[in-house]
Amino acid sequence: MMNEELIKWKAIARSRAIDVGLDFFEVVFEVVNDKEMNELASLGGFPQRYPHWRFGMEYDKLSKSYAYGLSKIYEMVINNDPSYAYLLSSNSLLEQKLVMAHVYGHSDFFKNNLYFSHTNRRMLDQMANHSVKVRQIQERHGVEAVEEFIDCCLSLDNLIDHHASAIKRKRDRRVESDELETIETPKLKSKGYMDKFINPEEFVQEQKRKQAEQKALEERYPDLSERDILGFLLYNAPLKSWQQEVLEIVREEAYYFAPQAQTKIMNEGWASYWHTHIMTNHMLTDAEVIDYASVHSGTVATQPGSLNPYKLGLELFRDIEERWNKGQFGKEWEECDDYIAKARWDTKLGKGREKIFEVRKLYNDITFIDTFMTEDFCRRQKMFTFAYNDRNAEYEVESLEFVKVKQQLLSALTNFGQPLIEVVDANFENRGELLLRHTFEGKELKHDFAQLSLRNLSKIWGRPVNIATVSEKKPVILSFDGQEFKTRAI
C-alpha cells in the first residue's frame, strides 16, 4: 500500500506528465515486496494466469537471481485500462519517483502506439477468465492431459502473424452455397412422376455437398500461404472442443504480448526519455542529483557486444528531436556534402517535440531503426557488429561500417530473429498432411528445434507434418510422421 509520501509524488509525476503532453491510461500503483514482484513478473505482470509449470520455473529463476544479487526488478507495468504498475517496497524514495515517471511514459505509449491499438484493454480481467476456464477444463479432462496439450501449444506460440493481428481471414473449409449450384449431381434412375420421391431435394443437396467437400480435399488449401499457423490449426485441425479452447487462449495471449516485443526499443526509450525529462526538471531535489545520475546510468549502461533497448531508444528519440529542431532532414540536408556546414546546420525549425510524438504513434522497432538511425548517429554511439572468431574462441568486433551495423540490427529485429514459417498446403501430396515453408534468408533451421516443432505440430494436426527448407545449401523437406523424422531432397 502506498504511503502519504508516495501518494504525494505520484500526484506530482502525473501532473508533470500531463503538462508535457503525455496522454496515458489512468495508472494504479501498488507497492509489493520482492517475493510478490517475482511472482508477478513470472506471470507476465498479471496477478492471475492459467496454471502451468513454466510460470513456476520462471519464478524460481527470478527468485534465485534476486537472492544472489544478479538482477532486480525495479518496476513493472501492464498494458491495460487502467494500467497497473508495481513498485518494489525496498526501493528508495528516489527510485520510486523515477519509476513513477517512467511508468507514465509506458502508459502513454500503450495507449497511443498504433501497434497496441488492437490489443485487449481489459486483459487483466481476460487473464483471470482464462485462469478459471483452464482450471475447469483440467477438472473435466485431467491436469496431466491438459498440461501436456498446453506444453504443445506454448512451444508453437511464436507461429503467429505478428503484423496482421487486425486482419480477419476466412480460415475454414466449409462449402459456400454458390459453390453447390455449379455441381452436377447424378440422380438415381426413376420415372418422371416418381423423381421427387426417388430424388428428393434434401438428398440432391446432400450429394452435391459431399462432392464439393471431396473436391475441396483434392484441391490445395489454403489457396494463399498462411503465416498465422496457430490460427490455421485452431480453425482446421481435428481438435476436441476443450483443445480448441486451450489453443485459442494461448493464441490470444500471444497476440496480446506481440506488440511489446515489436516495440521494446521504442517503448523503453520513450519511457526513459520522459522519466529523464520529468525527474531533472520537476522532481529532483539538490541532494538527490548524484544518486539519480547513478541509478539512471545503470539503467542505460551498455555492456560490450550487447544491445540495451533503454539506451538505444532514448538516444534515438533525442537525436530525432534535435534533428527536427534544427531542420536536419529533407532533400537539402541530404544533398549537402559540406561537413562543416552540416555540423553548424540549424534552421531553428523547432519541430522536435512534435516529431517524436508522431514517431511514438506510428512506428515499431524495425521502422524506427530503419527510418531514423543515421550514419552520424551510429558513429556517435560507437555502434559496431560483432562475430564469433573460431581461432580465438570468442566474440570480436567485426565491422564499424554503418550499412553492416544497421543491417545486422534490422535482421535481429525482423520476426525477433526467429525463422519465418508459413503454411502452404494442408493436403500435401493429397494425403491430408501439413506442409510448411521456411523462408530461407541465409540462416538454416536448427534441426533439433525444427524436429521438436514438427513433433508438436503433428500432435495438434493429427497427421504427418512437413517443412520445406534449406539444409547444407540444398532444398529439402523435413518430415515427421508421428514415429520418425525423415529428410528428403526436393
Order of strands across the biggest sheet?
A: 6-7-8-9-10
Ends apart, CA distance between termini: 63 Å
Radius of gyration: 28 Å
State the low-pLDDT regions, or none.
171-177
Shape: globular
- Estimated structural class: alpha+beta
> How many distinct folded domains?
4
Q: Strand tally, please?
A: 10
What number is the mean pLDDT?
Answer: 88
Helix count, per DSSP? 21
**Biggest β-sheet strands, sense, barrel:** 5 strands, mixed
Helix content: 40-55%
Strand content: 5-15%
List the helices and strands and how they pair.
Elements: H1 4-19, E1 27-32, H2 34-42, H3 53-67, E2 75-78, E3 83-88, H4 93-112, H5 123-141, H6 143-154, H7 177-180, H8 195-198, H9 201-218, H10 229-236, H11 241-262, H12 264-283, H13 289-300, H14 309-326, H15 331-335, H16 339-343, H17 352-362, H18 365-372, H19 375-380, E4 385-389, E5 394-399, H20 402-413, E6 420-428, E7 433-439, H21 447-461, E8 465-471, E9 474-480, E10 485-489
Parallel strand pairs: 1-3, 7-8
Antiparallel strand pairs: 2-3, 4-5, 6-7, 8-9, 9-10
